């Protein structure tokens, strides 16, 4: 589950914030096992030749919950860097 806003500006800067809940399996009912984060998103989007290049970093803190207890010490850190952007597609070309 994701809720929030991510935007880019004219220079290709990516900036935003997301609320995310991630469910995971556990020893009891799966719906009772989850982590909740407030995530700061930063990055850039640009082109190299005709290929898009995207770099995004997502960092946040929150808490996780299982059927037995709550833990206020969850953290999230992800980095995405695109590689080998899609080939050039002409208008109305089907792939």
Overview in brief:
This protein is mainly beta and 95 residues long. The chain has no helices and 5 strands.
List keywords for this structure.
single chain, 95 residues, 5-stranded antiparallel β-sheet, 0% helix
Characterise the protein shown here.
0% of the residues lie in helices and 63% in strands. The protein is built from no helices and five strands. The protein is mainly β and 95 residues long. The mean pLDDT is 82. The protein is elongated, with a radius of gyration of 18 Å.
Q: How are the SSEs placed, and which strands pair?
A:
Blueprint: E1 2-8, E2 13-23, E3 34-48, E4 51-65, E5 70-81
The total of helices stands at 0
Order of strands in the sheet with most strands: 1-2-3-4-5
* Structural class estimated from helices and strands: mainly beta
Relative helix content? under 10%
Radius of gyration: 18 Å
| Beta-strand share of residues | over 45%
Task: Tell me the span between the first and last alpha carbons.
Answer: 30 Å
Average residue pLDDT: 82
Strand element count: 5
Biggest sheet statistics: 5 strands, antiparallel
Low-confidence runs of at least 5 consecutive residues: none
* Overall spatial form: elongated
What sequence of helices (H) and strands (E) makes up the elements? EEEEE
